[in-house]
UniProtKB/TrEMBL annotation:
Residues 263-405 form the Phage terminase large subunit C-terminal domain. InterPro entries: P-loop_NTPase, Phage_terminase_lsu, Terminase_L_C, Terminase_L_N, Terminase_large_su_SPP1-like, Viral_DNA_packaging_terminase. Residues 26-229 form the Phage terminase large subunit N-terminal domain. This is PBSX family phage terminase large subunit. It comes from Lacticaseibacillus baoqingensis. It comes from the Bacteria. Pfam families: Terminase_3, Terminase_3C.
Length: 431
């Protein structure tokens, strides 16, 4: 086989050169949206397989089912972009990648089945490289250490080394990742940590960059993470302690009543569709699906509702957009769609009611999870927290509130009056 030449400065920006040049045990990259960290990591995986005959990779996410459309797809694209796709075999059962000339492998595992991580064996070389994508999803430091225990053994190359690449969006400064890899006084030895932003990705288009800059003005709290790659601040979260990300399947929620909420946006704000199942007895809401996208036209919204199997469910939409509701129903045939109830204090009352539930967010639901991590109460002029949320970064949360409306403030087919809503909240012990 002829030699393969990879020009690192051509395939990644300077911010990611250390991925390809450093022998540090840990390379930890937190970054903003569009920073290119996952693309760079995928190319690093392919390059290391090509460069070192002893290397096998373990690619980790919290939920195994999320690999196929994320890391696996990213590695296929990386191999194609580098012109070496034909040298690799990509299989989905089992989900793995094999380097044909040598038999080296890239394995995919999820922390939701940690036992499968420690039982991997290789025919060629050693599993000595690890990529943990969306590391913020990992539940704890102990979960990470379970993975680390799988990387062991004497390397056949005297110049060989073990290395773990960690990539994530830093949604909360409470994360164990901060002290483990970024705080100077506590981070692990032999760790190089980096923060990258969209400015480190020269391949972004102008519209995407404009949307990020607009976020700085319109949603500074969210921009802290999504634009600047800084740690999110958990203090003042409206739903603090009331949500979690967890994988679950349809059988878990099949018997529960379901509904859909819609919040409309367009150029700057996303249109959010949240699909929920409600366990009223145990006060748990399962958010099992979502669409969350800017620039959606009415027909595209109707198509998205159908694609996400929303037809046949009660759909409650933002009543400030009666024209869109009429078009969805009358022109595009979306059934069972009504406008959300409005009235004095209806938003704050809805949030109070929502706080009586625990929310379980499926891994495929990205927009709502981001908003849960950045939706905060406002402060007064003395820098004290108020009871009023900042009216920003809440499109998925508004859609979730609309989806919950049939279960909280509707009775006998009508939306409750203000006094009825107040009494309902009192009955729950929330006021």
């Amino acid at each position: 086989m002829s030699d393969i030449t990879i020009d690192i400065p051509r395939i990644v920006s300077p911010a990611y050169y250390p991925m390809f040049t450093s022998h540090a045990r840990y390379l930890s990259y937190k970054g903003s949206r569009g920073s290119g960290k996952s693309v760079a990591a995928a190319r690093k995986v392919i390059v290391d397989i090509l460069s070192h005959s002893y290397v096998n990779w373990l690619v980790i996410r919290q939920y195994f089912g999320t690999h196929k459309d994320s890391t696996f797809a990213a590695l296929k694209k990386a191999a194609s972009d580098l012109g070496v796709y034909d040298l690799f075999k990509f299989t989905v059962s089992p989900l793995e990648v094999t380097y044909k000339p040598t038999g080296q492998k890239i394995f995919f595992r999820g922390m939701d089945d940690a036992l499968k991580i420690t039982s991997i064996t290789t025919d060629v070389g050693v599993i000595c490289r690890e990529w943990i994508e969306e590391a913020f999803e990992l539940k704890s430091k102990s979960a990470f250490e379970t993975v680390e225990e799988s990387l062991r053994g004497i390397l056949p190359d005297p110049q060989g080394f073990y290395q773990t690449v960690i990539t994530f969006n830093p949604w909360s400064d409470r994360s164990w990742l901060k002290s483990e890899f970024f705080d100077e006084d506590t981070r692990r030895p032999h760790t190089h940590s980096f923060t990258t932003t969209y400015t480190d990705n020269p391949w972004l288009n102008d519209d995407y960059i404009a949307s990020l800059k607009d976020m700085i003005k319109r949603n500074p709290n969210r921009a802290r993470v999504a634009v600047y790659g800084d740690w999110g601040i958990a203090e003042g979260l409206v739903f603090d302690g009331l949500f979690e990300q967890r994988d679950f399947n349809w059988d878990d929620i099949a018997a529960l009543p379901k509904s859909v909420g819609l919040d409309f946006g367009f150029k700057h704000d996303p249109t959010a569709g949240e699909f929920i199942a409600v366990d009223k007895q145990n006060r748990v809401v399962y958010i099992y699906d979502e669409f969350y996208k800017q620039g959606m036209l009415t027909q595209q919204i109707a198509e998205a509702i159908g694609q996400h199997k929303g037809y046949g469910l009660q759909i409650t939409a933002d009543s400030a957009e009666q024209r869109l509701i009429s078009e969805l129903s009358g022109v595009y045939g979306v059934p069972n769609i009504i406008g959300a109830g409005k009235g004095k204090d209806s938003v704050s009352q809805g949030i109070q009611y929502m706080q009586s539930y625990h929310f379980v967010v499926h891994p495929r639901v990205k927009g709502l999870l981001e908003e849960f991590n950045t939706y905060v109460y406002s402060k007064d002029k003395f820098d004290n927290w108020t009871n009023t949320p900042v009216d920003a970064n809440n499109h998925a949360i508004d859609a979730l509130r609309y989806a919950l409306e049939p279960f909280m403030f509707r009775t006998a087919g009508h939306y409750m009056s203000n006094q009825e809503r107040i009494q309902t909240i009192k009955n729950l012990g929330l006021r």
